[in-house]
Please model this.
Amino acid sequence: MRSLTGQTRYVMVAAMFALVGILALGGCSKQNVMSSTESAGKAGAAGTTEGGPSGSGGSLGESGSAPLQGFSKSPPEEAVKPPTPPLVAKADQGEIAARQAREAAQRRLADIYFAYDKWALSSEGMKNLAQSAEVLKQNPAAKILIEGHCDERGSREYNMV
Amino acid sequence: MSRRGQRSAVCRQVGLLALVLTGSAVFAVATGAVEVFIDATRGAIQKIPIAIYSFKSATPVPGQPPADVLKADLRRSLLFDVADLERFGIRAEVNSQPGPEAIQKAGEAGLAVQVWGTLVPRGSEIVMEGTLFESSRGEVGRKRYVGSPEVVRHMVHRLADEIVFHYTGEQGIARSQIAFVAERDGAKELFVMDYDGYNRRRLTFDASLNLAPAWSPDRRRLVFVSYRKGDDPRIEELDLFTGARRALVAFPGLNITPEWSPSGEELAFATTKDGNSEIYKVDRYGRRFERLTDHVAADLAPTWSPTGRELAFTSDRGGMPQLYLMSADGTNVRPLTYRDQQGSYNTAAAWSPKGDWIAYVCRDERRILKLCLISPDGQQWRQLTTGNSNDESPSWSADGRHIAFSSTRNGRRDIYMINTDGTGLERLTTGGTSNEDPAWSGP
Model:
């Protein structure tokens, strides 16, 4: 929850005030997570190979693991093998479905954006905020989680904290 | 043969070759060997001139001609000056092993080292043989590989690394792999590719976010940050041999920026379990945790020195992110970058495998992210990349002569490599909508 500059804390404080009692769910990053279900269809497939820069395909030889042996006049034959077993982390269909359902429910409340390096709400953010307030008034028993997210500007790992 | 003996034999050869470079005095001086080390950490090394004959193939092989793959590998090693035989009036296409006259003739043209190869089918497999010649003594030796037609590129990479090893004692990087994150169908999934961008393979199908992969030194395991269990990212480990996957660090909050120690026995990472981001270590089994930093500011993104005795990391304890150093037990914390010297925003440190440089992301006065290099003593510093693109996530090759990174220089984010002197920029990815977070494996 950190914007590019030292203004992060202002952003956070502003976010807290703006969202008191109101639920804002889903940030930029989470929308990325949820925007597709297609990859799940490939669950359990063997490692898919894609072409390189000039489109050449082929499987991977895990040749890096065998030590170098040096040159000799009558060299032994070295077997170069395609990839060692599965290599693919199988998708957990139940896990993906549960996550998607959870996020779909959360999407009833819209995102509220700040401009870059600013703590003022955008006009769209104001509108979404008002709508979210309505949803909450209609669901007084709902439990809510407020999250703040930064966008991709700023270095990747520093933006995460 | 002892390691020492081996090394000196290598040096003699290289000494001889360096003299060959001087041209006219070749044969006169070959015996009065002046020894020249190939010192990979120095910029101005004398490259070894090498010529590659076209490989004779009794069967069609998919993809690029093997000789071209070998030339590219040897060029990238930065140890060889790959010459064009035809330019010296010597035929590169040969139907049988180059004879003594051809070898000699190329030697007189200054091409002291030459390589030729053959590919012969055997059942459904291909047998590739590569032969190394020196103009002064003819055939030095050969290598023989067998495998499916799809692994011919890897046979050539192995041959390239054998040649590098023969002349320098280094392992070479042609067999190394780069793990990275690619956007697919709106999710970020883990991939791995050869160091030259070929043979991309997808590792995860999580429909979630996977970030920041890091290799174990033995190249067997990848750790990375996964959001698949919800909003608190965990550090997971994927065994590339078995496909087994497990959570190593799953505290409430963020668990990010994992990095294996050079021994592979410990993992350094950052977690917000204590409220704000702190750096921890954990053993390879994910059991014994040790807190290294304790500060109200955010500490994250640790990188190990090659000795494993020190860590560099990012902290905003001075108000803005800067690089700091500490001992591997968390003591002796001191700043490495300073606002008035290196600018107000420096992150994502990556310690070179030779220990002499730390690459990192620096932000210029236009607020654009570039790559910079600083020596661990802070005495030397320079900007590595220029231009209007955001360059991020530096990761070193095992030979310490290249850095892989992500860049927006062609619009979308893709992975590139560059030599540490700023030359040799090469784009490694083209597919998908975004490719980022490269992690370069060991040799």
Q: What stands out?
A: The first helix of chain B runs from residue 3 to 20. Chain B touches chain A through 105 residues (CB under 8 Å). DSSP finds six helices and 30 strands in chain B.
